[in-house]
Design brief:
There is one protein chain. With 553 residues, this protein is α+β, with helices and mostly antiparallel strands. It has 17 helices and 18 strands. The protein has helices at residues 4-23, 40-50, 91-97, 102-108, 128-131, 152-164, 214-222, 238-243, 251-254, 282-291, 323-337, 373-378, 392-399, 421-436, 482-496, 517-522, 526-536, and strands at residues 120-121, 145-147, 169-172, 187-190, 197-200, 205-209, 226-227, 261-267, 273-277, 298-305, 307-308, 312-319, 344-353, 356-365, 384-390, 407-415, 442-449, 468-476. Strands 15-12-14-13-17-18-16 form a 7-stranded antiparallel sheet, with helices on both faces. Helix 10 (282-291) packs across helix 17 (526-536) and helix 11 (323-337) packs across helix 14 (421-436). The radius of gyration is 24 Å and the shape is globular. Bound molecules: flavin-adenine dinucleotide.
């Protein structure tokens, strides 16, 4: 039972917080119209009403692109405007000013030592309805507060208070998790303000804050003709990418993103900040690189090795859609990638977009000089060819694309030998079904060549021996389209299951995998990962639905 004194103290803090809000433009309370439950229909309305890409005609995707593009701001909605000036003495009066009392009800339950923080977004704060969403608007969750600390001191404070009150929380950096792994109906610790990028050309290394997005990393380094291996989508966060492995155009040459990490700055469950390197906490260093997402601590930043890449060539091959051509391109591509040198990356894309189907092969050669091996492999199939040479930044820009729609879901498989005709036929049918009914979706089946340096790393990225990484992603615009998208993806997955390995990519998190997720993501590394978890986080402070547990499941 709370004492009268406690209640008084809390009301006083609320009052101070509200007065502060009314003076700071970024902090004005907003009247959330939602109730605190997953009400997806309302979320959809909001997404559609406020979406910056609303009504925009989708661009045909770049043929070599790994995902697709939308114009306009990269994230978020227009923030709601404040309608009531509130300066209140006590909660009952406060209620009259909130047409929806749920925001206030949430706010009231926050412990007093987590109130009034200038780097927090509360349910009554301006911007709450933007901040509570991830990039993927499928997840309509209402946290008590989102903390976006700016300093080590602030993040240590937040973690210590959440721990003290035994409050559930999630960790978010780039907010591109395919499931709500970085969201929580408790609290969210958001690293967006840890956004420094400090390259050191002399040492050939770069410090990157946990909140940085791939676009800013690629640009900052590319301007100096340097790069680290990243994924291709500019709005994805470096942290989630690197902690789960990280596959992209330079992976065959330098390994997955996690292989270029020299050190990791980590806030531990004990509330200490440590530097994790090959020499210090070597077991944790191994685990964080491939299985580090939300399980062992909060990453504040990384030092990466960076590589000088003066030039690159991008080749894009395109064919008109025809099932026989798709089969032939797959066979030619799969034979060709087995002969590839590691400087070359390639991916095979089957895409349904703008109500049309396309087949493309994207090729990037990060070495200097001429590059022609693809001609022998594909000339008999007579593709349309586009070749672009220039700085690496130019090639990276060609591969870059953000999600084309606000809702999406993906599935992935690692394949250890070339695909036979059956799963390829399933992919053809999967996309042709969308086309048959002229469905308003974007669907991508993309097969990435692995091999090269990916095989060599000493890390927890389990499927390093795979021949390829295949993923299927569907994007859509309206909540009402969701059921069909999920149904089609699940059906496709069932069809191809006998022809692919049982392993999936942890960065393409998929809650459909259910209880067997540990084996599916980490294969025979599971026990080692659990032992390391027990050592560094024995009370399982850092957890989400598919995190590394303290005991075997
Ligand atoms: C459109 C799109 C394209 C993609 N393309 C690629 C690609 O080309 N190659 C590739 O390899 N992957 C790709 N991915 C997958 C991507 O790497 C993962 O979704 C990744 O987890 C996103 O990281 P994030 O920081 O943006 O996400 P978040 O949602 O912020 O976090 C993802 C996970 O990491 C944890 N986490 C976040 N921050 C921290 C932290 N500071 N400390 C500890 N744990 C943390 C979260 O709790 C969560 O479990 C793509 C994803 C999307 C949506």
């Amino acid at each position: 039972m709370r004492t009268k004194k406690d209640r008084l103290k809390k009301y006083l803090i609320i009052l101070i917080a509200l007065i502060t809000c009314s003076f700071k433009p970024n902090w004005r309370p907003t009247c959330s119209k939602e109730v605190r439950e997953t009400n997806t229909i309302q979320a959809e309305r909001q997404v559609r009403a406020d979406s910056p890409w609303r009504g925009e005609k989708r661009r045909s995707p770049f043929v070599g692109a790994s995902c697709l593009e939308r114009k306009g701001p990269q994230s978020g909605f227009k923030e709601q405007s404040w309608q009531h000036e509130v300066l209140l003495q006590e909660p009952n009066i406060l209620l009259q000013f909130f047409p929806d009392q749920n925001a206030y009800r949430l706010f009231r339950q926050i412990p007093s030592d987590l109130l009034g923080l200038s780097y927090a977004i509360y349910p009554i704060s301006h911007g709450y309805d933007t901040a509570r969403f991830n990039d993927n608007k499928r997840f309509n969750i209402f946290p008590y507060a989102i903390f976006a600390p700016r300093t080590e001191h602030e993040i240590i404070y937040v973690l210590s208070k959440l721990k003290k009150h035994h409050l559930p929380f999630s960790i978010r950096s780039g907010g591109h998790c395919f499931e709500p792994g970085s969201l929580s109906s408790g609290y969210v610790i958001d690293l967006r303000n840890f956004n420094t990028i400090r390259p050191d050309v002399q040492k050939k290394e770069v410090y990157i804050g946990a909140g940085c997005k791939l676009g800013s990393v690629i640009t900052a380094l590319g301007k100096r003709n340097y790069a680290i291996p990243t994924g291709t989508c500019p709005s994805v966060g470096i942290t989630g990418l690197a902690l789960g492995g990280g596959l992209g155009p330079l992976s065959r040459l330098f390994g997955p993103t996690c292989d270029s990490i020299k050190s990791i700055t980590l806030l531990t469950a004990e509330g200490k900040i440590i530097e994790v390197t090959k020499k210090h906490h070597s077991d944790l260093f191994w685990a964080l690189r491939g299985a580090g997402n939300g399980s062992y601590g909060i990453v504040l930043g990384f030092t990466f090795k960076m590589y000088y890449i003066p030039a690159a060539t991008t080749v894009t091959l395109t064919w008109n859609w025809d099932p026989a051509t798709v089969q032939a391109v797959f066979q030619a591509w799969q034979a060709w990638v087995q002969t590839l040198k590691p400087t070359v990356t390639t991916q095979l894309n089957l895409i349904y977009n703008n109500k049309t189907l396309s087949i493309t092969v994207g090729i990037l050669n990060a070495g200097k000089g001429s590059f022609s091996g693809w001609q022998t492999a594909f000339s008999s199939l007579q593709p349309q060819v586009q070749i672009i040479q220039g700085p690496y930044l130019k090639s990276a820009a060609l591969f870059a694309a953000n999600p084309p729609n606000p809702f999406y879901k993906a599935k992935s498989e690692f394949i250890f030998q070339p695909l036979s005709q059956e799963p390829i036929q399933s992919a053809i049918s999967f996309l042709e079904e969308f086309a048959l009914n002229q469905e308003d979706y974007v669907a991508v089946c993309q097969l990435y060549a692995m091999g090269g340096a990916i095989r060599k790393g000493n890390n927890a990225f389990f499927p390093k021996k795979a021949f390829g990484w295949w993923h299927q992603t569907v994007f859509w615009d309206r909540q009402s389209q969701q059921e069909l998208a999920l149904e089609k993806l699940r059906k496709f997955k069932r069809e191809i299951a006998p022809f692919v390995s049982p392993y999936s990519y942890v960065n393409y998190v998929d809650y459909d995998i259910g209880k067997k997720y540990l084996r599916v993501y980490y294969g025979n590394e599971v026990h080692r990962l659990i032992r390391i978890k027990r050592k560094y986080d024995p009370h399982n402070l850092f957890h989400w639905k598919q995190s590394i547990p303290v005991h075997c499941k």
